[in-house]
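Please review this pair:
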Amino acid sequence: AMEAEKRDVPFEAVSVEPGQVKDGQVRDYGLISSAHTVDHGKELFYITWVFQFLTLLLGNMGFILLGARALKEINSEFSNSPLRLQYFIIITGAAFFLYSFAVPTMSAMRRWLGISTILTFTYIVILLAVLVKDGKSNKNRDYEIRGSKVSKVFSGFGAVSAIIACNTSGVLLEIQSTLRRPAIKSMRKALCLQYSVGLVVYYGVSIVGYWAYGSTVSEYLPTELSGPKWVKVLINLAAFVQSIISQHVSSSSQFLRNSC
């Protein structure tokens, strides 16, 4: 199929879920195919392509902003006049650029995925420990949602959009297309684990953070921590490295297909 794509020769599309080739399907749209739109015609192909491009663009911007915010928090621990966020955005972008060249494919990320798992659990355990400590010592928590009715409505919409964005993955179906058959069975197991055990941890951090600091808590939770300097540096360093790895996981499949 890849050789046919290089020669711009139409080839049969793969139906991802059953893992079989569908007869009569031809991809000749001249753009990068989406694994989950090959069965639904040219119109849905282009619509999905636009949304995938926006997801890729906005998702990458979010990862870079997250990494930059983490670097700024580290800098603020060592300086009374930290640099502006824009400088750290440039540094984070440059770091990801270099990382994408050093680790160009998903296959080359084997060890990095293990590091990512360790960083995730390190971040969660240390963060929860500090949050519980701060929550017990903070007696002035205020849970009242302040602002006008209009601002509350827009804040509600913003919260809903954040929940949707954080609980849907732009690479979920791309991962499904790489699973051995039957892909549906394997993906269903992964989804059940993610949306049960994963959500307990994911929302657990948010709920404990809200309990510890009240409604005025920062959207970037490590900003609120009152622990020792090494704890803040370690948590923000984990967030920075994780933002680089996570961004590459979501982008590497696109880089690979563009190079084919």
Notes: The chain has one domain: 2-259. The longest strand covers residues 20-26.
